[in-house]
Amino acid sequence: MPISQITIPAVEKMPALPSPLFIRDWRQVALDYDTLVFDFEQQGDFLPLIWWDKTHNNFPRDTFGLYSYVGSMHQGHGAHHEAINCAAAVLGATLVGIDKSCQHGHNWVLMCENYFNRDNGENLFLNQTVSESGRTFWYELFTHLLIYALIDYYPQTGHLIEEMEITADMWYEAAYVMAQEEDFNYTAFDFKSMQPVYNGRWREPDGAAGIAWIQYMAYVRFGNPKYLEAAKWALDYLQERTANPYYEVLLPYGAMIAARMNKEVGTDYDVAKFLNWCCDGDSESRPGWGVVTERWGGVDCHGLTGSLTDGNGYAFAMNSFQSAAALVPLVRYGPQFARAIGRWMLNLANNARLFYADFHPHDHQTCWFWQGDPKHLIPYEGLRKEWDGKSPYATGDPIRYSWGAIDFCLYAGSHVGMLGGLMQKTNVEGILQWDCLKTDYFMGESNPTFLYYNPYPEEKRVEIPVGSEVCHLYDLTVDDFIERNVTGLSQIIVPPDTARVVVIVPAQSRVYGKE
After folding, report:
1. How far from 64 is each of 58, 103, 411, CA to CA, in Å?
2. What is the pLDDT of residues 354-381, one digit of tens each?
3. Burial of 206 (0-12, 13-18, 19+ CB in 10 A)
4. Residue 449: which of 474, 429, 427, 470 has the closest Cα?
5. Less Cβ crowding at N or C end of the chain, within 10 Å?
6. How far is Cα 14 from Cα 346, in angstroms, rounded to an integer?
7. How far apart are CA 11 and CA 304, in angstroms?
8. What is the DSSP letter of 409?
9. β-sheet bridge partners, residue 435
């Protein structure tokens, strides 16, 4: 029996099939990006993009830095690098199949442990190796999210698993303090004073989503019920809140973890509300923050995340890539959202090419002249709806605000592996295979699970490689088997404007109590 699909109004404004249809090979982009940015021998203007950090902050080892922007004026030496860039680059490469614990004779994963700020006594993963808490939720929580994801893939590296438990305990204490007030509507949390912080300028209430994600990951990894309790405190706050809390990048992870907890521990969070918040642009905390549902300059830009009001539209590469990482695994736990997320992800995968220089004429971008990236692997920070009378327009903030000479952005490009690790093309152009397990961290043993969305007005036959062992194909959207006893290259029928969430199940297994 088909599960009734829940529509997301913003996604309904996106076309089923974006136009023009041109989907990059995002896995290859991520592989080539890794080759480029981790190469100390690159030569040319603003190259190489990596340097050795020999400051030995927090641990007596060398680590590495990547420029946040090409040619950033204050970087290129010492500890002037960011976890949201460097750890993301290591994670993104991991997701497309590179073992970053042993590459070119270096353990890049172990080097990310230097973001564990023990020298200052806080014992937190922070965005820099010399930093302190209490400045901004999203940087401080997002760094934990990225490094927790690395820990899932490399649990035996350094002391990362112990540090995960230490930091989870710290965020439990923060959640406890805010839960006593029944309020997470702050800018950050100061772990020296153990008090939440409002800086008088902005609030980041979707920090509750990041806390919920961190605490639930700790719960499934360590089994301590206090972490589950804290995850519920944070999601309860979002559930009861009426105003949209979206600030930067954390809210989609709140939607995902709400769906997972509903399935795994029997909660009843309103995932549709959280997803609508991610799209609508009506955030109380950051007005206009949401998902593009328009054509800009005659080109589809639907599905990209950013501001809908800054210059009438300013989408960002990092946020768009991270939306995919957060939301694709959601359909495992909430198959009623498969069609909405499938349509959104198709638009995102197609239109994310517009962050890159080779998809624009020279007069629709700021830095066409830079020759250091001939394969066009480093995106612009963002895409504006209009600039200097041109639409769309690929750009960034460095030149505008005198942060640097180039608007190409590694802190965005380092996240491309999130898209490259999740998505593959199928035999039908425009129908993509999305790996629902790749960014579903600390999930335990699971059978391969893939999301397919058919954007066409007629049914399509999609090929699925199932391997040499006899398997059944189980579709979560109908809660039943759709093929049995298949091997090699199987096929499924995907009806028009419909999604399937297909689990490849060994023939001798049981799924949801069904033989």
Report:
1. 14, 14, 14
2. 999 999 999 999 999 999 999 999 999 9
3. buried
4. 474
5. N
6. 10
7. 11
8. B
9. 450
User: Which pLDDT tens digit goes with each residue over 265-315?
Assistant: 999 999 999 999 999 999 999 999 999 999 999 999 999 999 999 999 999
Closest CA to 476 of 372, 377, 334: 334
The kind and range of the H/E element at 472 are: strand 460-475
What φ, ψ does residue 489 adopt, rounded to 5°? -105, 105
Contact (Cβ atoms closer than 8 angstroms) between residue 185 and residue 127: no
Angle between the N-to-C axes of helices 160-181 and 225-240, in degrees from 0 to 180, rounded to the nearest 10: 40
Token pair 């049995």 in the structure block, residue: 484
Query: What pLDDT, in 10s, does the model give residues 95-133?
Result: 999 999 999 999 999 999 999 999 999 999 999 999 999
Q: How many DSSP H helices and E strands does the chain contain?
A: 15, 19
Q: Where are the alpha helices (DSSP H) in 43-158?
A: 83-95, 108-112, 137-153
Per-residue model confidence as pLDDT tens digits over 150-179: 999 999 999 999 999 999 999 999 999 999
Alpha-carbon distances of 321 from 310, 317, 348, 422, rounded to whole Å = 20, 6, 8, 10
Closest CA to 435 of 332, 348, 334: 332
Closest CA to 79 of 127, 135, 147, 144: 127
Centroid of chain to Cα 356? 18
Which one, of 401, 383, 410, lies nearest residue 306 by Cα? 383
pTM of the predicted model, to two decimals?
Answer: 0.97
Report the pLDDT value the prediction gives residue 73, as an integer from 0 to 100.
87
Which residue has 């152009």 as its token pair? Answer: 429
Strands 195-197 and 188-190: antiparallel
Reduced to 3 states, what is the DSSP secondary structure of residue 117?
strand
Q: Where are the beta strands (DSSP E) in 130-229?
A: 188-190, 195-197
* Residues 145-172 as b or e (16 or more Cβ within 10 Å = b): bbbbbbbbbbeebbebbebbeebbbbbb
